Sequence to fold (191 residues):
Amino acid sequence: MRVVKDPDTRKQEILEGALKVFAKKGYEKTTITDIAKELGISQGLCYRYYPSKEEIYEAALEEYADMIVNSNLKRFGKKGRSLKEKIKTFSGSVEEYREPEKSNELLYDLFHGQNSRKMHDQLMMKTASKLVPYIRKELQEAKDKMEIDTADIEALAYFFVYGQIGMLLEHGNEKDCNKRIQDFLIDMLKL
Fold:
């Protein structure tokens, strides 16, 4: 008997089934057939919602990046704090950034497992692109309050986000990495 589900529910179900298979077999070895078998549905139904395995992966990347951004912005965006206080909260260790990610084990395993460096780096870049508008807004508010004096908020927002990511990827396991980032940003912005 055919089960009809709400399109959004079915789409999410396919995404979650794909994540299970990606986590078990790896992205490269997974096929749409594998995903359909995992869910007990036809390949055609998978293709109805996602024209390719790559689109499923992109949807997973989007969902995971949104989750990371939203959970980390809760730490950063508290009202009434100065930019310096926000920097001390937001510019943290790699483990602090990863903590919210652990709430979805499938995504965490997929993007942080063995042989997942390329996917992890794609996730970091997607997350960064989603963070920039929020950071731009925070920096503009700090400029409006005369906490900082800079002519190019746009460049500063990109530097703020992508500079930290580069530092965290290369030096994130070092004991004082987060303090170095915080001190550098505070010094650079003359806070």
Remarks:
- The domain at 1-51 is CATH 1.10.10.60 (Arc Repressor Mutant, subunit A).
- The two ends are 65 Å apart (CA to CA).
